Fold this protein.
Amino acid sequence: MRDAFSRIKERLNPLRTNNQVLNTYVVKNFNELSLKPLFLAGFLLLLILAFLFKENALSTEAYISIQKDLFLVLNANLSQFPALEFNLTQLGDVLVFSSFLAILMVYAPRLWESLLASLIISCVISTLLKKLFAVPRPAAVFDHDYFVIIGPTLTGNNSLPSGHSISTFTILTVVFFAFMPKKMLSKVIWSFSIFIPAIIIVFSRVGVGAHYPFDVIIGGIFGYVSAVLGILIYRKLNIFSWITNRRYYPVSLALFAVGTYVLMNKIIATNLIIFYLSLISLLLASALVINIYAKKQC
């Protein structure tokens, strides 16, 4: 009798049930995560360091010089699709990319809680490393007639690592581990479906003339590290659970409203399709949150 009542209750409230099932799946995946994925990131960073050391390219000037030709080739080829590259590179903006995941605040709140922790870590890592290395961007070094610049011309000394690449890999790595399948073949397919788009997105930074190849590769690795650390640290601290609590949905809606305002300004400024898609996603998530909160109040 008790089991029958539970099944009837679940059928009467499918949204809640689906929400719980998806979030439970994410929680289980996050609980199974260990430090092992960091070994791969450390190995890749050591390989890059060894290569730069071997080529005597640990100084700023040598670091730029050793990848100048590769940068020019990639920039020339990728910039043949300026509209595509300019839209893709916007996904490195945390607001733009996270708007596509806003609806998961309802269906998989644990993903969002861990994502916030990961993004904070990625922001700290990006800020510290950019100041530490202080590598000038391509537009600050090369004649602008020799390569293509799409969008604003960036000339600061903050090229390494690429912040957009860190953000992109942080977000996609959290998604990767959150929805990791159980079967090996599915895991392989899932890995390709996540990290190939991630690589395409981060190399758009070379296509628009904003970064050198190693900037985006190193940035991607640190984004991966940020995601893993964020998931593991949040599992211990659990400090953002209040954000996805329905009682605090007005706070989320206020943040969504700010995001909507920023995206609308971006549309006015550049009129890119990626901003429209991001805005639509954010508005749909806002409507869902409002609907759920209104029902709770009634």
In short: The CA atoms of residues 72 and 147 lie 6 Å apart. The two ends are 30 Å apart (CA to CA). Residues 109-133 form the longest helix (25 residues).
